[in-house]
């Protein structure tokens, strides 16, 4: 991805895409600590709008705080960087990758606290699991890898090292012919996907694992809000593997994955084996909100002006 035309916001300046570089002795490359976000902007009737930008920026700063990293920019500056890269790259809709990482001033486990680099990149990126997946649903496998224990790494942080576990699960699932992995927590209960939160529909209610074992997903928050407004009861609880097998519907949420139905798990058909009724309704409402068709959620949209 490095050899492209365009601009990346790099430590406060818009630089040429191919010049946004770091040294091979970058601390984060060696020890795996950086904090990042995945954010999306959509085309709306009133122009391009970033969805829940402030919430993503808040989570970025929370992730940094958890690991004692000082981001040398204000939240407003990071928000503005998102707007600037959309404009500089003339994007109508896009995925953003803000990331804060330690530079190459010093190696050894303890990072140098004032050597934090920040970039915000943006590029056009369609449906993460494919356009078909949003309609037809995907096939998942329960991973042989467990999700993080809350005292081994910090689950509230969207930190790069956490994703080694995601890579193990996701590549295993692909290797075995599935679209994505579902990870159980260290006690055997359902946690999340490799980069998505998970929801279960059963007898008209919506269930999702509590946040002690899963990332506090911003799409997850949005879906809970939409469901409650629809009068659907939402329950955060421990979910077993076999509860997934007998669920009426199961779906993933995430900024990249949006609302992706799961039609099969471990070779068992879930519900009707296609996008279910409530999943369809929630997905439709989600896209109405992010694409600016629901005035009740305007406060979640930051327009690029
Ligand atoms: N869980 C994990 C592990 C993730 O990487 C993501 C993507 N950020 C999510 C859940 C969903 O979070 P969000 O809806 O904020 O993108």
Q: Judging by the overall fold, what is the CATH architecture of the largest domain? A: Alpha-Beta Barrel
User: What oligomeric arrangement do these chains adopt?
Assistant: single chain
How many individual domains? 2
Q: What structural class is derived from the secondary structure elements?
A: alpha+beta
Question: What is the count of helical runs?
Answer: 8
CATH class of the largest domain: Alpha Beta
How far from one another are the termini? 27 Å
Shape: globular
Number-wise, the strands total: 17
- What is the percentage of strand-forming residues? 25-35%
| Uncertain residue ranges | none
- Could you give the order of the helices and strands? EEHEEEHHEEHEHEEEEHEHEEEHE
Description:
With 305 residues, the protein is an alpha+beta fold. 27% of the residues lie in helices and 28% in strands. Strands 8, 9, 10, 11, 12, 13, 14, 15 and 16 form a nine-stranded mixed sheet that branches. A hairpin with a 2-residue loop joins strand 15 and strand 16 (268-269). The mean pLDDT is 97. Keywords: Amino-acid biosynthesis, Aminotransferase, Branched-chain amino acid biosynthesis, Pyridoxal phosphate, Transferase.
């Amino acid at each position: 991805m490095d050899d492209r035309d365009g601009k990346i916001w790099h430590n406060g300046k818009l630089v040429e895409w191919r010049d946004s570089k770091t040294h091979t002795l970058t601390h984060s490359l060696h020890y795996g600590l950086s904090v990042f976000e995945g954010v999306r902007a959509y085309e709306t009737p009133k122009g391009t709008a970033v969805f829940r930008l402030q919430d993503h920026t808040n989570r970025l700063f929370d992730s940094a705080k958890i690991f004692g990293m000082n981001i040398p920019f204000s939240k407003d500056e990071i928000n503005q960087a998102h707007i600037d890269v959309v404009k500089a790259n003339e994007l109508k809709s896009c995925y953003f990758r803000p990331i804060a990482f330690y530079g190459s001033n010093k190696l050894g486990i303890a990072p140098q606290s004032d050597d934090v680099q920040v970039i915000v990149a943006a590029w056009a990126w369609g449906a993460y699991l494919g356009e078909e997946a949003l309609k037809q649903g995907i096939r998942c496998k329960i991973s042989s890898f467990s999700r993080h224990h809350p005292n081994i790494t910090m689950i509230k942080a969207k930190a790069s090292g956490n994703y080694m576990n995601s890579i193990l699960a996701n590549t295993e699932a692909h290797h075995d012919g599935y679209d994505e992995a579902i990870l159980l927590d260290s006690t055997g209960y359902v946690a999340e996907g490799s980069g998505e939160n998970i929801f279960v529909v059963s007898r008209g209610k919506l269930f999702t694992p509590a946040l002690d074992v899963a990332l506090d997903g911003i799409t997850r928050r949005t879906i809970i809000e939409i469901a409650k407004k629809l009068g659907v009861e939402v329950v955060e609880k421990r979910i077993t593997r076999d509860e997934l097998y007998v669920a009426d519907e199961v779906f993933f949420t995430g900024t990249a994955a949006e609302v992706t139905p799961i039609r099969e798990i471990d070779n068992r058909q879930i519900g009707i084996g296609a996008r279910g009724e409530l999943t369809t309704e929630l997905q439709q409402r989600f896209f109405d909100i992010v694409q600016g068709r629901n005035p009740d959620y305007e406060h979640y949209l930051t327009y690029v002006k």
